[in-house]
Amino acid sequence: MSVLSYTAAALVVTGAAFAASLATSHATQPATAVLASATPKPARDPFVCELRLTEHNRQVTISAHAQAHQPSRGTYQLEVEQRSAGGRATIRQGGEFDLKAGEAAILGEAKFSGRSREFQAELSVTANGKTRTCRQAAL
Fold this sequence. Notes:
Layout: E1 4-13, E2 16-24, E3 31-37, E4 47-56, E5 59-68, E6 72-84, E7 87-99, E8 104-113, E9 119-127, E10 130-136
Antiparallel strand pairs: 1-2, 2-3, 3-4, 4-5, 5-8, 6-7, 6-9, 9-10
């Protein structure tokens, strides 16, 4: 099985680097993309947030992830918009989370029929007085 990687975008938000990439593989394996993620500076950032996209058989899953480097309690807001010939759909999810140091969690997830290029996504995470936003205008 061969894997080809494509860089889709790179974003810089509040001094944290965000990267996007798309990996394609054998037809029976889902393609996964990290849409946007934050790499923390341990002394300043208590957590990392990340958007991930999986596309398999015309089903797209976008999930919001967080990993705590320090105990982190806060809220998240995930917004996903799909635009296609059939119209437009917007999903908004949000809630609270409480992570121990070193703990990772999926904060929210949305599943759609379609292709990854039809989506825009944004994840905002606020914890311990800091807010991180991961945006992807075109996947």
